[in-house]
Design goal:
By secondary structure, the chain is mainly α. It binds alpha-D-glucopyranose. Alpha-D-glucopyranose (GLC) binds next to helix 2. Pfam families: MGH1-like_GH.
């Protein structure tokens, strides 16, 4: 298929997955509005309909909780084909039924980029209305996912990381006691091959964490104190730090001085804090279980987001370049979600090996900004190849390039349009 046919197909996937102002990740497997999916989708829409891009983000923020949190799923209507639905979560934090935790905060970064690339003249107005909401969400992260002010962001559930069954969660998850869960029937394994999805033992624990947080009424301070899972995540930490820098740019552009001053203190705290995630044996940033003080021992795709977060230490850059080249010699398509040399790597099981287009986009941005155009371009070209070969799949095998998980996937289409498509790359900036 030619690039322009793929461009057309990507646009029609977004339009078909549009539910009237917000977009589902894919039909069947994910029938609701997901947080970071929607934000990447906005980036995709912005290539052909900027008003629609703003609407996507504004509808996400309609679900913001009173405490500032923006939930990972908004259950705008009941859909029995998805589990766990609203009755399992038992939340009451905002105007729309939702899950009880968040997802990687990419919103401020995309909002800033919508403003920078505005063709409508209406961006400043949209951005000004979103600024206090973004500030509230970022404050929530700092208060309740970094209560000890370490300068790193913890996740209270593997799903909050957006990288659901990453090997980094294994040990912390094993320590979660299976309790207070009703008999249940999974729905994910009826939509896609169970060999690509998390195991039942993991699922029992996912639900036990939900039950524990529900017991404290999803009160964020109590959740931070008592949740059986509390792991600092390099993925969310780096995405958050990057989002803070983009939020600062936005606040400065809007001449919001008080906000800008506050955000600068966040950035300073995070820049210092990320050091606790550095594993000097592995030579990369890894996860840190805040309950036990133990670091994990594997390089994940999020380790490479240090550059996207703006960490400009020459040692970090050269360590990541070395990891990049080592991994590139092991797989055909970059960037596997987990190190292929690690014992936990599995090329087709969800976040234990496969490649995701939107992660490649962020890693490449970081490499390019660090002056490493060659590795950035390698990521773009691999992403384009994967999509040209296997279509708009949820994720891809780094070894064979086979598409896996759900099909006609929204964020894969959005990333094609906004970054990977060769026809996009030829357009003037
Ligand atoms: C899975 C992914 C998560 C994503 C969701 C919808 O749960 O792990 O990151 O947001 O699917 O695509």
């Amino acid at each position: 298929m030619s690039h322009s046919d793929l461009d057309k197909q990507a646009r029609s996937i977004l339009i078909e997955n549009d539910q009237g102002g917000y977009t589902i990740p894919t039909r069947g497997l994910y029938p609701y509005q997901w947080n970071w999916d929607s934000v990447f989708v906005a980036l995709g829409f912005s290539t052909f309909d900027q008003d629609r891009a703003w609407q996507e983000i504004e509808m996400l923020f309609e679900g913001q909780w009173r405490d500032g949190m923006v939930p990972h799923i908004l259950f705008r209507k009941d859909d029995p084909s998805y589990f766990p639905g609203p009755s399992v979560w038992g939340t009451d934090g905002g105007a729309i039924p939702s899950s009880g935790h968040s997802q990687p905060p990419v919103a401020a970064s995309v909002v800033n980029s919508l403003v920078e690339n505005d063709r409508t003249g209406r961006a400043p107005e949209h951005a000004a209305a979103l600024l206090p909401k973004l500030m509230a969400w970022h404050r929530w992260y700092l208060s309740y996912r970094d209560p000890d002010k370490l300068g790193v962001i913890a996740v209270i559930h593997p799903w909050e990381s957006g990288r659901d069954n990453l090997p980094d969660w294994d040990e912390a998850l094993r320590a979660v006691e299976v309790r207070d869960i009703e008999p249940y029937e999974r729905k994910d394994t009826s939509h896609v091959d169970p060999a690509m999805r998390p195991h039942k033992e993991d699922y029992d624990r996912y639900l036990s964490i939900v039950a524990a947080c529900r017991k404290v009424g999803w009160d964020p301070a109590k959740v931070a104190q008592t949740c059986p899972f509390f792991v600092a995540d390099p993925g969310v930490t780096f995405i958050f730090l990057r989002a803070c820098r983009d939020l600062l740019a936005l606040a400065e552009r809007l001449e919001a001085q008080d906000e800008a001053r506050e955000i600068r203190t966040w950035i300073a705290r995070m820049e210092k804090g990320t050091r606790v995630l550095w594993n000097s044996t592995v030579k990369a940033h890894v996860a840190l279980d805040e309950r036990t003080g133990r670091q994990t021992d594997g390089v994940s795709s999020a380790s490479f987001l240090a550059l996207y977060a703006g960490l400009r230490d020459a040692d970090i850059l050269s360590a990541l370049q070395a990891h990049f080249d080592r991994i590139a010699a092991r797989v055909r398509y970059m960037m596997p979600s987990y190190d292929p040399d690690h014992r936990s790597y599995e090329p087709l099981r969800y976040w234990r090996g496969p490649v995701w287009a939107m992660i490649n986009y962020m890693i490449a941005k970081g490499f390019a900004e660090a002056g490493d155009e060659a590795r950035a371009e390698r990521l773009r070209a691999d992403t384009a190849d994967l999509i040209e070969t296997s279509g708009f799949a949820e994720y891809f095998s780094p070894e064979t390039g086979a598409g896996a998980g759900g099909g006609s996937f929204s964020w894969t289409s959005a990333i094609w349009l906004a970054w990977a498509s060769p026809s996009h790359a030829q357009e003037p900036a």
